[in-house]
């Protein structure tokens, strides 16, 4: 028989209430937001998932549909509302709401409508969840992240963008497909803007322990020549546009990428991810949000790693910074 614990005076001690393990907030219950909730639940990333959307009927339907599948996932609670209070005391808030990208439309073309939405919604969320780590996913994510920092007043470590986490996953997939090795053995990053000016960091990439630029080709698969690398880089940028043209939105891969970022924060993993954050003297680049390999943990972003770059890569990163900075200035940031 288990004996109840006693206090110093011999009386039964009152158990200290345990804090809930984690609460994830998702702003926007559209294709990306609802899939993000599904991915996070499937991975057991959070004990509570809270959805916020202006369309009350839509968000309540998504909550009900997700809740009906909890039996087949790690135990969790799903809640949702059109009232910002549903996000109270979140540990992580992922912002997916924004204007929908149309076929042929660049991410930067989305900036005006999305920034207007952020200006309207974000301050109220920060008021009810002041200690949350904020992850901006809405495109154009680099400009939106920079604007969100100005609008919210949050520290640069506490708010950052999903950046090129998805682009890096696309890059690794394409390299793996060409070389015939498992994608998990490919280590490569896309840096810069999450968009047309982004660039793969070939000089620091590797396959297993072999530098990518020295990969000889195995099992009938050829080496990664400059022509192959150029084609892969082009496909990384263009693939999102092809998906949007074919089905209207990208949602599965970005949801998985987002859930990976969420776990890095909630589990304090100190994981290196190419997220978009405010740079300050990074290889001579400042006052712009760009993706570079960054340590991510419970406090948000920490060190930005100064990975080796060729002169062309460094020039490309600076050009990407200028492209993003120009758009941010156009909207008064």
TrEMBL record:
<feature type="domain" description="Lactate/malate dehydrogenase N-terminal">
    <location>
        <begin position="23"/>
        <end position="161"/>
    </location>
</feature>
<feature type="binding site">
    <location>
        <position position="101"/>
    </location>
    <ligand>
        <name>substrate</name>
    </ligand>
</feature>
<dbReference type="InterPro" id="IPR001557">
    <property type="entry name" value="L-lactate/malate_DH"/>
</dbReference>
<comment type="pathway">
    <text>Fermentation; pyruvate fermentation to lactate; (S)-lactate from pyruvate: step 1/1.</text>
</comment>
<feature type="binding site">
    <location>
        <position position="58"/>
    </location>
    <ligand>
        <name>NAD(+)</name>
    </ligand>
</feature>
<dbReference type="GO" id="GO:0005737">
    <property type="term" value="C:cytoplasm"/>
</dbReference>
<dbReference type="Pfam" id="PF00056">
    <property type="entry name" value="Ldh_1_N"/>
</dbReference>
<feature type="domain" description="Lactate/malate dehydrogenase C-terminal">
    <location>
        <begin position="164"/>
        <end position="323"/>
    </location>
</feature>
<feature type="binding site">
    <location>
        <position position="250"/>
    </location>
    <ligand>
        <name>substrate</name>
    </ligand>
</feature>
<comment type="similarity">
    <text>Belongs to the LDH/MDH superfamily. LDH family.</text>
</comment>
<feature type="binding site">
    <location>
        <begin position="28"/>
        <end position="33"/>
    </location>
    <ligand>
        <name>NAD(+)</name>
    </ligand>
</feature>
<feature type="binding site">
    <location>
        <begin position="139"/>
        <end position="142"/>
    </location>
    <ligand>
        <name>substrate</name>
    </ligand>
</feature>
<dbReference type="InterPro" id="IPR015955">
    <property type="entry name" value="Lactate_DH/Glyco_Ohase_4_C"/>
</dbReference>
<comment type="function">
    <text>Catalyzes the conversion of lactate to pyruvate.</text>
</comment>
<keyword id="KW-0597">Phosphoprotein</keyword>
<dbReference type="GO" id="GO:0004459">
    <property type="term" value="F:L-lactate dehydrogenase (NAD+) activity"/>
</dbReference>
<comment type="subunit">
    <text>Homotetramer.</text>
</comment>
<feature type="binding site">
    <location>
        <position position="32"/>
    </location>
    <ligand>
        <name>NAD(+)</name>
    </ligand>
</feature>
<keyword id="KW-0560">Oxidoreductase</keyword>
<feature type="binding site">
    <location>
        <position position="53"/>
    </location>
    <ligand>
        <name>NAD(+)</name>
    </ligand>
</feature>
<dbReference type="InterPro" id="IPR022383">
    <property type="entry name" value="Lactate/malate_DH_C"/>
</dbReference>
<feature type="binding site">
    <location>
        <position position="172"/>
    </location>
    <ligand>
        <name>beta-D-fructose 1,6-bisphosphate</name>
    </ligand>
</feature>
<feature type="active site" description="Proton acceptor">
    <location>
        <position position="194"/>
    </location>
</feature>
<dbReference type="GO" id="GO:0006089">
    <property type="term" value="P:lactate metabolic process"/>
</dbReference>
<dbReference type="Pfam" id="PF02866">
    <property type="entry name" value="Ldh_1_C"/>
</dbReference>
<keyword id="KW-0021">Allosteric enzyme</keyword>
<feature type="modified residue" description="Phosphotyrosine">
    <location>
        <position position="241"/>
    </location>
</feature>
<feature type="binding site">
    <location>
        <begin position="137"/>
        <end position="139"/>
    </location>
    <ligand>
        <name>NAD(+)</name>
    </ligand>
</feature>
<feature type="binding site">
    <location>
        <position position="187"/>
    </location>
    <ligand>
        <name>beta-D-fructose 1,6-bisphosphate</name>
    </ligand>
</feature>
<dbReference type="InterPro" id="IPR011304">
    <property type="entry name" value="L-lactate_DH"/>
</dbReference>
<feature type="binding site">
    <location>
        <begin position="98"/>
        <end position="99"/>
    </location>
    <ligand>
        <name>NAD(+)</name>
    </ligand>
</feature>
<protein>
    <recommendedName>
        <fullName>L-lactate dehydrogenase</fullName>
        <ecNumber>1.1.1.27</ecNumber>
    </recommendedName>
</protein>
<dbReference type="GO" id="GO:0006096">
    <property type="term" value="P:glycolytic process"/>
</dbReference>
<dbReference type="InterPro" id="IPR001236">
    <property type="entry name" value="Lactate/malate_DH_N"/>
</dbReference>
<feature type="binding site">
    <location>
        <begin position="167"/>
        <end position="170"/>
    </location>
    <ligand>
        <name>substrate</name>
    </ligand>
</feature>
<dbReference type="InterPro" id="IPR036291">
    <property type="entry name" value="NAD(P)-bd_dom_sf"/>
</dbReference>
<feature type="binding site">
    <location>
        <position position="162"/>
    </location>
    <ligand>
        <name>NAD(+)</name>
    </ligand>
</feature>
<feature type="binding site">
    <location>
        <position position="107"/>
    </location>
    <ligand>
        <name>substrate</name>
    </ligand>
</feature>
<keyword id="KW-0963">Cytoplasm</keyword>
<dbReference type="InterPro" id="IPR018177">
    <property type="entry name" value="L-lactate_DH_AS"/>
</dbReference>
<keyword id="KW-0520">NAD</keyword>
